[in-house]
Amino acid sequence: MRIPPLISVLKARKNQKSYFESKIANMPELQVGDVVSLPIPKVDRANIAPRNMPARVEKINENSCTLLKENGLLENPISRQ
Prior knowledge:
- By secondary structure, the protein is α+β, with helices and mostly antiparallel strands.
- It has a single domain (6-79), classed as SH3 type barrels, CATH 2.30.30.
- It contains one helix and five strands, in the order H-E-E-E-E-E.
- A hairpin with a 2-residue loop joins strand 3 (64-69) and strand 4 (72-73).
- The protein is extended and about 50 Å long.
């Protein structure tokens, strides 16, 4: 098995970091009352079930937000990062 050179690994990490930073910078700011869609993992849904679950933003903290779905509040706050 060939081990990749250290320089190419460092370049890949730098590219990955800049990619994620640009994705986060392009995200719109959330406001209370916005409707967002949460992906549902395939193991938690049936084949005919929807892939995303709509939820409304109820409260925004510094690094997370509380979401309200049709059955009530989600148990854990959701982080944007």
